[in-house]
Amino acid sequence: MTGSADRYWFDTLLRMTFTFTSAGESHGPQLTTIVTGMPAGVALDRDRINRDLARRQHGYGRGGRMKIEQDEVEIAGGVRGGETLGSPIAIVIRNRDFENWRGAMDPWSLDEAETHKRRVHAPRPGHVDLPGGMKYDRRDLRDILERASARETASRVAAGAMAKELLRAFDIDIRSGVVSVGAAGDPEYSPTWDELMNVDDESPLRAVNRQHEPHMVEEVDKAREAGETLGGTIVVAARNVPLGLGSYVQWTEKLDGRIAQAIMSIHAVKAVAIGEGVAASRKIGSEVHDAIYRDEERGYHRTTNRAGGLEGGVTNGQHVVVRAFMKPISTLRRGLPSIDIETKETHRSQWERSDVTAVPACGVVCEAMLAVVLAAAMREKFGGDSLREMKRNYDGYLEQVRAF
User: Fold this and answer.
1) Where are the alpha helices (DSSP H) in 41-97?
2) Residue-wise over 304-337: b if at least 16 C-beta within 10 A, else e?
3) pTM of the prediction?
4) CA separation for the pair 256, 276 (Å, rounded)
5) Measuring CA to CA, which residue among 230, 71, 219, 97 is closest to residue 156?
6) Which residue of 18, 72, 215, 385 has the smallest Cβ count within 10 Å?
7) Contact in structure between 71 and 26 (CB atoms under 8 Å)
């Protein structure tokens, strides 16, 4: 390896001891996910993992695709008898809709008429259709949107569910809730952990404040009637995160930066805040920072958590709190002004079956990505080939922290 760039990526690979890689297209045969860095001896709960996949599909304003797919994980490697082996975990999620798209999406043989019917030639503003087609030199923009589709988030939720199983072994829990959809709700509201725990996953929009939910539903209905789409705001938090994850010594190791990157990588998320985030920029210092106290019973502690559980890129023992801001989905039924890339003439952007909003589902994906980052940080900090070894290291570290 030569050069600082090569060294950076080499160091990153060494550092990211829990990670995943996914493959597959929205209407292809399946999604495939490879999870690496899971220690041996972690008990997996299949129902719990599949429940997260079902939560991702739920929500008022979702499109017809959710009526076709019934996502469940198939484990093809790395697990025996419901327990991890320490080797890479191979996960498969079948795309039931592939049978309706085989003529246009089969990996080996395409039907010319079906391919022509499904051809995408008028890119959607706000999506990666046009820059992706130009970058990869693909004249049928379906080659771009199939991978860029939010269907890919099913892979993230599956990998995140694995990360949650590891975190659960250390009593770390993650929850999310919606605080605004369109103009309804309050995007700056800071829910307590108990409020996030009480979010009803079966409610239309997984709203933190149930009094706001009817207004959110009205917003979705109005957008649907107008051929529009809606975004919103999600709060996701992790409880019982130990002090000392992440580091301040290099920019690549700051955990808040890594969390922000993971959340920003989610489809349609355009802004991320940790703790009070943007609101803190409008206040004076004494109204923003969390005073430190100490007593014999609790040791060092805070009475506020405006920092969102992170100071200088390092967890401080409080809840990690992240706010994600999701823009409206790019696929509008009424379309927007665009260009036909073949004729170079004005054309409305193309539309196919899509959601009016996916804000509730985005919250579940945010949980998954936060879980992946925290699992990686836990593995970096405590190592171990097995869960028992990792726990011994964890327990010894906690003794050191308590004695400080």
Assistant:
1) 46-57, 65-68
2) ebbbbbbbebbbbbbbbbbbbbbebbbbbeebee
3) 0.93
4) 13
5) 71
6) 385
7) no
Amino acid type, 9: W
Helix (H, G, I), strand (E, B) or coil at 11: helix
- Residue 113: how many other CB atoms lie within 10 Å: 10
Rounded Cα distance, 67 and 333, in Å: 19
What ranges in 106-212 are assigned the alpha helix state H?
112-118, 129-136, 142-148, 153-168, 193-197
Q: Which two tokens stand for residue 404?
A: 């400080």
**Local mean pLDDT, 10-residue blocks, the chain (404 residues):** 61 68 96 97 97 92 69 96 97 94 96 95 94 97 95 97 98 98 95 96 95 96 93 98 97 97 97 95 94 93 96 97 96 89 93 86 97 97 96 96 92
- Which alpha helices (H) appear in 58-128, and where do they start and end? 65-68, 98-105, 112-118
CATH number reported for the structural domain that contains residue 367 in this entry: 3.60.150.10
Coil, helix or strand at residue 315: strand
Give first-to-last CA distance, the chain, whole Å: 40
Q: Return the structure tokens found at 121.
A: 């030639």
Surface-to-core class of residue 372, CB atoms within 10 Å of its CB (0-12 exposed, 13-18 middle, 19+ buried): buried
Residues facing 92 on adjacent strands: 32, 74
Work out how many domains the chain is built from and give that number. 1
Note down the domain range covering 137: 3-402
Q: How far apart are CA 258 and CA 276, in angstroms?
A: 18
- Contacting residues for 222 by C-beta, under 8 A, at least 6 apart: 228
